[in-house]
Design brief:
The chain is an alpha+beta fold and 263 residues long. The chain has twelve helices and 14 strands. Helix content is 36%, strand content 25%.
Length: 263
Amino acid sequence: MYSFELKKADSVAKAVALLAESGGKPLAGGQSLVAAMKMRLSQPGTLVDLSGIAELKGIRREGDNVVIGAMTRHAEVAASKDVKSAIPALAALAEGIGDRQVRNMGTLGGALANNDPAACYPAAVLGLGATVHTNKRKIAADDFFKGMYETALAEGELITAVSFPIPKKAAYMKFVQPASRFALVGVFVAQTAGGVRVAVTGAAASVFRAKPLEDALAKSFTADAAKAVRMSAAGLNNDLHGSPDYRAHLISVMAARAVAASG
């Protein structure tokens, strides 16, 4: 690990000012950034610690939405009575992230800003049609994820919270890569006020919506309808864990399981 300076912020405004002044990077839970620094894949001269910013934490119900602060830990989402009651699929997803250490340190905002191709939270945000709140604006889920480790966030822009619409039905299923516990393929299926949404993680360079599955489930929200969809392998990942064709098959299988689990 290269040497760096750690600065602490006690407000969003202070964090933004420190980042602009230092040209550094924000530190949320550190589950991805610190690991990259240890391997010398990342070399920020300054880290701005967000853990002391109270306004970035907490979970609350606002009308037909559950609003979760960016610095809320995965374990807190998994244990939240409000999340379990309103969006049980989101609580279950958080409970299945990594191991206990990761869940107790990792944060919602950090996971989204990092946008790992196999992370679970992006599937929930895109699958539920959530809204990402920053210190500058609100970004719809469909506009937030841009590519591998790439988002719509601008320089100096921090995620402050995410607003999740409460769906009629929803579930998340992932085929776990056993060594990393990331999703080889993860599928979030939701029946929302605006229609059926299906988001896939782990299968490509970034999370994406599976339109063929959405169209099929809009006609018949059943496991059999999902299972009958043959997803294209074009553009899907090809590595030692699975071929594009294998991942394409898994997308339909995981979607069918998610529909069955959604009740």
